[in-house]
Write a structure and sequence with these properties.
about 40% helix; four-stranded mixed β-sheet; TIM Barrel; alpha/beta; four-stranded antiparallel β-sheet; about 425 residues
C-alpha cells in the first residue's frame, strides 16, 4: 500500500549513525522522519510525495545539539576578553546582563539563535538567568527561539545566593511557581529546572530543585566543578568534592545534566556514572575562561554520556566544539588516538541529544527531521567526510539548516536575523556605555 508522506529527502551523500551513506533517503511527515534507508527502497513507498534532492557536492548530516548556552553573552565578546574569570563574571556578566529588558533579550536571542542555525545547530539548551523580576524575560527568550525556528530546552535557573545580582535571585517558592507556570504555558519549550551551582544556589534551593525535577520528571541542569576555586572552596567548607556534595543534597541522578565537570576528585567519575548523570563539555569556553580540561576520555570509559555546548557563545559553533573536544583530549593524555573524530561527532549529535533527553542527533526513523546541508566540495576526495567535518569543518560550509523538515537557514542571514543584528548593536551601545 502506498503511504502518503509530506516529502522524500534524497541525499547523494549523508552521515548516518556516524557512517557515510550514499543515495540515502528519508521520508518526512509532520516534521518527523517516518522511514529511512536506501533511496531505491523508499521511492516506491513515497511515489505520491514531493521530493527534495541534494546532489553529490552536498553532504547531509543531522542537526547539531548545543547542550549549554547563555545567548545573552554574545554581548560580552570582543571587549571582555583575556580577563580573569572573577573579573569577567563580576564586571562583564554581572555588569551587563541584569540591565537587559525583555525586548533586549528577544533581539539578542534572535541574533544568537540565528548564528546557531547558520552553524547547523538545531537544538539549544539555554541556561537562563534573568528570572528575578518574573517570567517576562524568559518568555522573550522562548519567543525568540520560536520566531527563529530553533528547538529550545529552557533550563530555567534558580539562584538565591546574596552575592548574585538581584535580577537573578528568587525565593525557592517563587522559583518553583514561576517554573511551573512556564512549563504549563510553553509545553514545547522543554522547560526544566536549573539550580545554578553550589555557590549561587543555597543547599535548600538545590534540594528543592531536585525534588521539583523528580516530581515533574524533568531534567536538572547545574554548573558543576567548573573552576578550581569551586572545588577547593567546597572541599574546605564541607569536606566534600562538588560531586559528592551535590549527591548528598539529593541532586545527582539520572535527570542530572552536569555542566563542565572539570575539577573532579577521586571517585567522582564513578559517582557520576553510577548515578546516571550526564555531562555537557564546553571546550571552547573552558579554554577562553581558563577553566581547565574535562577528562572526557575518563568519563566516557566509565559509561557517562557526554555532549557538547557553546556556553559563553564567543563563537556558537558545534564544529569548533567537536574539533576542540578531540584535540584537548589528545593534549591531556598525550595520545593522538584517545578520542577520535567519530567520538567527537557523536558528542555533538546523538550523544548530545541523549544527554539532554531529547529526540534528535541522527537521520533515522522516529527522529525529528532536523538536518544540515554542507558544501561537500570543500572535502578532499580522499578524505573521510566525518573526519573532514570534525578537523577541517567551518560554519561557512553550512548551505542550509532544516528544523522539523522546514528550512530555517538558507546560506545567508534572514531578514529577521539582519534586523536582530542591528537591534543588538544598538542594545550593546546602550548597555556598554
Amino acid at each position: 500500500m502506498v503511504q502518503l508522506a509530506s516529502e522524500l529527502v534524497r541525499c547523494a551523500r549523508a552521515i548516518v549513525a556516524g557512517e557515510p551513506r550514499y543515495d540515502y533517503a528519508f521520508l518526512v511527515r509532520d516534521g518527523v522522519i517516518e522511514a529511512a534507508g536506501d533511496y531505491r527502497d523508499l521511492r516506491a513507498l513515497a511515489r505520491r510525495s514531493g521530493e527534495r534532492a541534494f546532489p553529490g557536492d552536498r553532504l547531509v548530516v543531522p542537526g547539531f545539539i548545543n547542550g549549554h548556552s547563555h545567548a545573552y553573552q554574545i554581548l560580552l565578546r570582543g571587549w571582555a576578553d583575556d580577563w580573569t574569570f572573577d573579573r569577567w563574571r563580576t564586571q562583564a556578566l554581572y555588569g551587563v546582563v541584569p540591565r537587559l529588558t525583555p525586548d533586549d533579550v528577544y533581539w539578542t536571542f534572535v541574533a544568537a539563535f540565528s548564528e546557531m542555525l547558520g552553524a547547523g545547530i538545531t537544538t539549544v539548551a539555554e541556561f537562563f538567568y534573568l528570572n528575578g523580576a518574573g517570567n517576562e524575560h524568559a518568555e522573550a527568550a522562548i519567543r525568540a527561539a520560536a520566531d527563529v525556528g530553533i528547538r529550545i530546552v529552557l533550563a530555567r535557573t534558580w539562584m538565591d545566593a546574596p552575592h548574585v545580582p538581584s535580577e537573578f535571585r528568587e525565593s525557592i517558592e517563587t522559583a518553583g511557581a514561576r517554573t511551573r507556570d512556564l512549563m504549563e504555558r510553553f509545553p514545547d519549550a522543554g522547560v526544566c529546572v536549573a539550580p545554578h551551582s553550589l555557590h549561587a544556589a543555597s543547599h535548600a534551593m538545590i534540594r528543592a530543585a531536585a525534588e521539583f525535577s523528580r516530581d515533574r520528571d524533568c531534567m536538572l541542569h547545574v554548573h558543576l566543578a567548573e573552576a578550581r576555586y569551586e572545588a577547593e572552596e567546597t572541599q574546605r567548607r564541607f569536606g566534600r568534592t562538588p560531586v559528592q556534595l551535590l549527591d548528598e543534597l539529593g541532586a545527582l541522578g539520572e535527570r542530572t545534566v552536569a555542566i563542565h565537570a572539570i575539577h573532579l576528585g577521586d571517585g567522582d567519575g564513578e559517582l557520576l556514572a553510577e548515578s546516571g548523570a550526564r555531562v555537557i563539555h564546553n571546550p571552547m569556553t573552558n579554554q577562553y575562561l581558563g577553566d581547565g580540561i574535562c577528562d572526557v576520555v575518563g568519563l566516557r570509559a566509565l559509561g557517562v554520556t557526554v555532549g557538547l555546548g557553546t556556553d559563553a557563545d564567543v563563537r556558537p559553533s558545534l564544529m569548533d566544539e567537536m574539533r576542540e573536544a578531540a584535540l584537548l583530549q589528545k593534549i591531556r593524555r598525550l595520545d593522538a588516538s584517545v578520542l577520535g573524530a567519530g567520538e567527537a561527532y557523536a558528542m555533538g549529535t546523538a550523544n548530545g541529544a541523549r544527554a539532554l533527553r531529547v529526540a534528535g542527533g541522527d537521520l533515522v526513523a522516529g527522529a525529528p527531521a532536523d538536518f544540515v546541508v554542507l558544501d561537500a566540495s570543500k572535502i578532499d576526495p580522499w578524505s573521510a567526510p566525518l573526519n573532514a567535518l570534525v578537523y577541517r569543518g567551518e560554519d561557512a560550509w553550512v548551505q542550509a539548516t532544516f528544523v522539523g523538515g522546514v528550512r530555517r537557514y538558507v546560506g545567508e542571514p534572514s531578514p529577521l536575523a539582519r534586523r536582530a543584528r542591528e537591534a543588538t548593536a544598538a542594545i550593546a551601545k546602550r548597555v556598554l556605555a
